[in-house]
Amino acid sequence: MLEISQRGQAMPVSPFRKLAPYAEAAKAQGKTVYHLNIGQPDIQTPPQLLEAVQRAHIGVLGYSHGAGTESYRRKLAAYYQRTGIPAQFEDVMVTTAGSEAILFAFLTCLNPGDELIVAEPFYGTYTAFAIAAGVKIVTVTAHIEDGFALPPLADFEAVISPRTKAILLCSPSNPTGYVYRRDELEALLGLCQKHDLYLLSDEAYREYCYDGATATSALSLPGSEQHVVVMDTISKRYSACGARIGALVTRNQQVWTAAFRFAQMRISPPGLGMLLGEAAAELPPSYFDETRAEYQARRDLTVRHLRAMPGVSCPVPGGAFYVIARLPVDDAQLFGQWLLEEFSHENQTLMLSPANGFYQTPGLGQQEVRLAYVLNQRDLEAAMVCLAEALKVYPGRVELAEVQLSEAHAS
Amino acid sequence: MLEISQRGQAMPVSPFRKLAPYAEAAKAQGKTVYHLNIGQPDIQTPPQLLEAVQRAHIGVLGYSHGAGTESYRRKLAAYYQRTGIPAQFEDVMVTTAGSEAILFAFLTCLNPGDELIVAEPFYGTYTAFAIAAGVKIVTVTAHIEDGFALPPLADFEAVISPRTKAILLCSPSNPTGYVYRRDELEALLGLCQKHDLYLLSDEAYREYCYDGATATSALSLPGSEQHVVVMDTISKRYSACGARIGALVTRNQQVWTAAFRFAQMRISPPGLGMLLGEAAAELPPSYFDETRAEYQARRDLTVRHLRAMPGVSCPVPGGAFYVIARLPVDDAQLFGQWLLEEFSHENQTLMLSPANGFYQTPGLGQQEVRLAYVLNQRDLEAAMVCLAEALKVYPGRVELAEVQLSEAHAS
């Protein structure tokens, strides 16, 4: 009997795609479906990025260096330095999107069977990469009551084992929007120093912090040189998800060299995407001001609506473009399915991501959903009205004890 | 102590890159170095492919479907059908170059510790993917005397174990240029049927067969449906290595579905490259005639020169753009290094790939090199003159028993 590998069987379906068949059916019925389920920015890719590709004179579209073209790596290093991240040209490896940076980091830093600690809820796709790399994810739990702040260090220490090789963080966080404070990052780095662990830092949403805050890069911390591997991408930063351009950045030369062997395995990153990335790296910092203001307005709109819905609670996310909300429903996944199958308001409904897919511990997040505010404000408003109407009539509505948000942590 | 993973330490340096530092040093000395070491076509990327990207109106460069855009998948399926490969739209998954198709095939079809049989010499990068996926490559040996034809089936049967899950073939072959005959493919498929094995078929060089021959796709064989996974790429076919666009094609729906979960892990393939690939899939079959004729002329030139050098023997490769030659030298790697460090002829020299990197069995291929004929004919001629001159004066020259080429197999 021909069989699929165990890892092939174990690979999960993306949490933001579980409800996709129901969304397709709803659209087939003629309903408008607002997609709050996936972090695909709707904001236009800056035209000068595409123009850079379109202007290029290419005779032979050949392989590049395995770490990317020198010109792009130099411009990316300059961007990092402008952003306060002390990365040199030699520290930068261009990858096929952030995805490949995650894969290379896992393959390079962990053996099969080794353990990686992640605070849940976390980006569900880490689980898929962990399965592909044979790595075991061990979780500590962040709580909505704390705005998903860093769990106590004692929780991390409690799960460190001889197989633990790394801690992974994502800040600003997908899916919570929480932005780790500098002292939280220092505490995590201290833990990594104490226990000889790598600190894998997913900084995809670096530029999107609100209320005047900025994200601290783990790589900018003193003493981070040997420990930190940054996994980066231009996807969210410049609304360029389809370019598939990311980067692995580390000052640990051993890690860089080993990761580079994995990079050589696939020869080179996408060439046309690198042309686009190069133009992106040259955008002035002011580019982010407008986009950030738009996302902040959407976040405010989303949170205002959510908090006005009886029984709904959510922290104010400090960054990224997600919010996790707890809803007064029996089961967020059933509710999400019901929204698409049974509900409509003025022939409109919405698709959201049930948050249980972002937790590893069974049973957590049953009443929580992740909403991505990647719609223009009019559509976002309409989606929020739908959600409010839906909660009024959902047959599985339950009364929840009110969440006491600790505002010290919540924004 | 922070340590690199075992697989990170085990990752090999690409055989065609081992001599790279010596080539850089030679160029720094002002020597012209002819690169016969890497299969990077010099032939221009068809301009209409780049124009398709440059003409596209893109507002948001977003994620595509995990298996690629529907329009590209449909055009690719049409190309396969024109080529005699019975692949439907549903069987096609767009990947980030052939590399990713190899990775997904390994991850999907084999468990860590499972065995994959490959005839050596083989594309060295398979080793890297096998290490990344925790798969063990077991070899049977093809011989230069037979023109690198399929080794006897008994050799395969002798190495099949309970852990064997798949046989991998590459036809037309990198690095040998050998094109498997239909009866050889049928024999391999029969073996896979008998032992419940997958047949992983790397068909990157499909369009480049010479002397009027055509390559048979493993997927076109009756009874191949459940067994065959084709790993494909547009890199060599259209001189578009930098686009990083490939495909995994299988009619086994279980395999497709499991591989698709790995595809969803990295969300989508490169968007700009898919626009280029779409235009490529629409090129008329006549596009290949001119390119094929050019490669055939180069092959003839290369083989003619090699065979005129005393003590050198090589089969006539039937496809791809490589030839493996046995040289009268003590050690091809030392010779390759000497060519770059010590030798020049009219201030020119050449870089080649020592073939030991394409064998897994220690000691094999010590006198063999792989030459990629991806230079224009004038440069190729100059490189061949350099090689002939070098062999006259190389201090490590040895006399080899003459290779008796079995011409029945050699072309």
UniProtKB/TrEMBL annotation, chains A, B:
Swiss-Prot/TrEMBL cofactor(s): pyridoxal 5'-phosphate
In this protein, which residues make up the domain named Aminotransferase class I/classII large? Answer: 33-343
Under CDD domains, the record lists: AAT_like
Reading the lineage from the top rank, the first entry is Bacteria
Tell me which InterPro entries the record gives: Aminotransferase_I/II_large, AspAT/PAT-like, PyrdxlP-dep_Trfase, PyrdxlP-dep_Trfase_major, PyrdxlP-dep_Trfase_small
* Pfam families linked: Aminotran_1_2 (PF00155)
Output one GO MF annotation: transaminase activity
Keyword entries, A-Z: Aminotransferase, Pyridoxal phosphate, Transferase
Q: What family does this belong to?
A: Belongs to the class-I pyridoxal-phosphate-dependent aminotransferase family.
Protein name per Swiss-Prot or TrEMBL: Pyridoxal phosphate-dependent aminotransferase
Organism expressing this protein natively: Hymenobacter aranciens
